[in-house]
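> call design_seq(struct)
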């Protein structure tokens, strides 16, 4: 059995971490034909857009894609390619499993959280305008019952399929009474269909404090888009940073996998950053393809290499300037050897 997968290397550190991911997947023996597609600032001159239609077409055709991070300019310039891919393909669920890995320096052990972030609306609808240029601007936050119920159902189905016992809805319904009120009511309605799974809700500010103090009290978190973005980075911080956390953008029968981290431009081309998040995103992709055994082998190999703590990148060493840290590709080779 072979699979055709759209591969978007991205920019910044994207090409390095996706190259590492690709090598590890190939080493499992699963045969993948990579349809490499370029997107981001570098293709604007050629196609007039950072996200050419043929890139989306490739993912639509293959139903599966994996990407490296793509840089988004701040305070102007083109809209996020990452957000545009999620919206164009209706990849409505952003899934970010966040587990402690033995050997990764972090404040806690045994953290096991799953962030389910709504991926298509909220402030990421991208509706912004100047009310008085230079003086006042406005962004519109869209929340719909349809999208809220859909993401809630995804969270509960995930919980059911993966033996998780608690889903927490995260919101700011005391202040955003209409939008987050609707989000919360929608999740509550879906929760009633899953009586075997416990359900509660938290205000997002309180949740952040509680996650920092008592992360073990939480299990699956379901959030609107912006809170999901912020809280998933917080959760990455609880288990050792952005270098290790994988992600998936999932729609109906179609998915694009990507690490949670961004393009970290200051490290571009240095063969320095951690490939784990991209490699674990590749493992999530293999699970989606039905290659659970290969995915498990990758996860075990990653865990083994990190637990040994020898052939790992700088961020997994006790001190960040440890001269024994290896590069991106060398860590990938250690993972391949451990397979
Ligand atoms: P970032 O995740 O790129 O980097 C923040 C810091 O995290 C880095 O400086 C580095 O210290 C650490 N880090 C990130 N990835 C790492 C890795 N693999 N190994 C070790 N350390 C790692 O976040 P940022 O600086 O806020 O964003 C940079 C660019 O990335 C922006 O243009 C942003 O829009 C974009 N971005 C893209 C995506 C995506 O493609 N989905 C996601 C987030 C940010």
């Amino acid at each position: 059995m072979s699979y055709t997968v759209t591969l978007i290397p991205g920019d910044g550190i994207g090409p390095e971490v996706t190259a590492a991911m690709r090598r590890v997947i190939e080493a499992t023996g699963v045969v993948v034909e990579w349809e490499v597609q370029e997107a981001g600032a570098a293709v604007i001159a050629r196609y007039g857009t950072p996200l050419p239609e043929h890139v989306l077409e490739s993912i639509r055709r293959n139903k599966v894609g994996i990407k490296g991070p793509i840089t988004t300019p701040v305070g102007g310039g083109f809209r996020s390619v990452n957000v545009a891919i999620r919206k164009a393909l209706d990849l409505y669920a952003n899934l970010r499993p966040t587990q402690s890995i033995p050997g990764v320096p972090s404040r806690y052990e045994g953290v096991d959280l799953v962030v389910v972030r709504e991926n298509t609306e909220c402030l990421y609808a991208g509706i912004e305008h100047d009310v008085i240029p230079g003086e006042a601007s406005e962004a519109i936050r869209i929340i719909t019952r349809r999208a809220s119920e859909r993401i809630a159902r995804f969270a509960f189905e995930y919980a059911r399929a993966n033996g998780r016992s608690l889903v927490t809805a995260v919101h700011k319904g005391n202040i955003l009474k209409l939008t987050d009120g609707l989000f919360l009511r929608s999740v509550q309605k879906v929760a009633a269909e899953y009586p075997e799974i416990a359900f509660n809700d938290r205000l997002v500010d309180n949740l952040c404090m509680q996650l920092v103090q008592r992360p073990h009290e939480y299990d699956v978190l379901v959030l609107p888009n912006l809170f999901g973005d912020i809280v998933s980075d917080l959760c990455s911080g609880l288990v050792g940073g952005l270098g290790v956390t994988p992600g998936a953008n999932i729609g109906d029968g179609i998915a694009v996998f990507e690490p949670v981290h961004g393009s970290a431009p200051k490290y571009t081309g240095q063969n320095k950053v951690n490939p784990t998040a991209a490699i674990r995103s590749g493992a999530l992709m293999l699970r989606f393809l039905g290659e659970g055994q290969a995915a498990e082998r990758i996860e075990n190999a990653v865990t083994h290499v990190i637990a040994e703590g020898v052939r790992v990148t700088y961020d997994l060493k006790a001190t960040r300037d440890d001269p024994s840290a290896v590069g991106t590709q060398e860590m990938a080779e250690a993972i391949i050897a451990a397979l």
